[in-house]
Automatic annotation (TrEMBL):
It comes from Mycena pura. The keyword Transmembrane applies. Keywords: Membrane, Signal, Transmembrane, Transmembrane helix. Residues 1-19 form the signal peptide. It comes from the Eukaryota. The chain crosses the membrane at residues 214-238. This is Uncharacterized protein.
């Protein structure tokens, strides 16, 4: 049993080390700190950022609070089917990035106004070339922005390399504003043991920890603890039962009969004699004879149910065996 606990503990430790999941934030400008991958924007001149805003203030999105954006950076584009101000009328605008993980989340800033800027949203998301979701919301027509909005979340994709594409607008569709803040993906950290001595830049802010991943970790830990408790209780019960029955067990072996004794066949009749005689037949005066006697000296057939009639004890003659008066008192 101790070996079983040792193996189970080793397996649990190995699993926990191998299955350490961390979230990595891909910034819209600085990219992936773990792999160095950057977001690719197309067409490039249709996207504006902090750098273009500094170079040309007219490209800045009005009233955007950069203090509430991840790393203080953003990339934004406006799709329009008819307006050629961005140089690409009726052309969907895309942002794409590659990552290796098992979950992905997209965070944007969403404008609440309808004018300056037009805050309607029309986004489509592709994973490995397959559409996997969309986000289409009309602006309510009030001032301000909503920050850190998860416009897309997929916590359960197959682990491995993937390519994510964010498309702003669609042909002949309505106007759409996209302000990309960051992309977060979940990966298996193979350097979990080395992270204690060498801090990495792949740490994401607390706001980017998805609740689904945290819930999975909590459930796994709880299941392991419950399984350990069940094993401990079962082991203690088995040991206690062995101790109780050990005091009741007989020492040595017990034989019902000597092994040297051989059975002797029993004859059906005594030697030299025939069948045993039948018991004597009751006489007429034996009034105490039971009602259910089945036969009587050939007077009544064997199949009759009541061979004797009820007899009054006052008229019955008592039959005593011979020599009864000489029996000792």
């Amino acid at each position: 049993m101790r070996r079983l606990f040792f193996l189970f503990g080793f397996w649990t430790f190995w699993f926990s080390v191998q299955a350490v999941l961390i979230n990595t934030t891909i910034d819209d400008t600085t990219g992936d700190p773990f792999t160095g991958a950057h977001v690719t924007y197309s067409p490039p001149d249709a996207w504006h950022s902090l750098d273009t805003c500094i170079a040309n203030a007219s490209t800045c999105t009005p009233n955007l609070n950069v203090q509430r954006l991840s790393s203080g950076t953003w990339h934004e584009s406006t799709f329009s089917a008819n307006d050629a101000s961005n140089g690409h009328p009726n052309v969907p605008l895309t942002a794409s990035v590659s990552f290796n993980g098992s979950a992905v989340y997209i965070f944007c800033a969403i404008s609440q106004s309808r004018t300056d800027p037009d805050g309607d949203s029309d986004m489509t998301f592709y994973l490995d070339g397959v559409p996997v979701g969309s986000f289409a919301e009309p602006a309510p027509g009030i001032a301000g922005f909503d920050y850190n909005v998860p416009v897309f979340a997929n916590p359960a994709i197959s682990p491995g390399p993937h390519t994510l594409i964010i498309q702003n607008g669609h042909q002949n569709g309505g106007t759409s504003l996209l302000i990309l803040d960051s992309i977060v993906y979940t990966r298996n950290d193979d350097t979990a043991l080395a992270s204690d001595t060498a801090p990495t830049a792949a740490t994401s802010s607390p706001r980017h920890v998805p609740g689904a991943t945290l819930a999975v970790i909590i459930v796994l830990v709880f299941a392991i603890l419950v399984l350990l408790a069940v094993l401990v209780v079962t082991y203690r019960c088995i040991r206690r039962r062995r101790v109780v029955y050990a005091h009741r067990a007989y020492k040595g072996s017990v034989h019902a009969f000597p092994t040297s004794l051989k059975p002797t066949p029993t004859p059906r009749f005594a030697s030299g004699s025939g069948p045993a005689p039948l018991p004597p037949i009751y006489t007429a005066g034996n009034w105490w004879v039971g009602r259910d006697q089945k036969s009587r000296d050939g007077m009544i057939g064997i199949g009759s149910h009541r061979p004797y009639m009820d007899l009054d004890p006052a008229h019955a003659s008592v039959q005593r065996p011979q020599g009864w008066e000489h029996s000792p008192r």
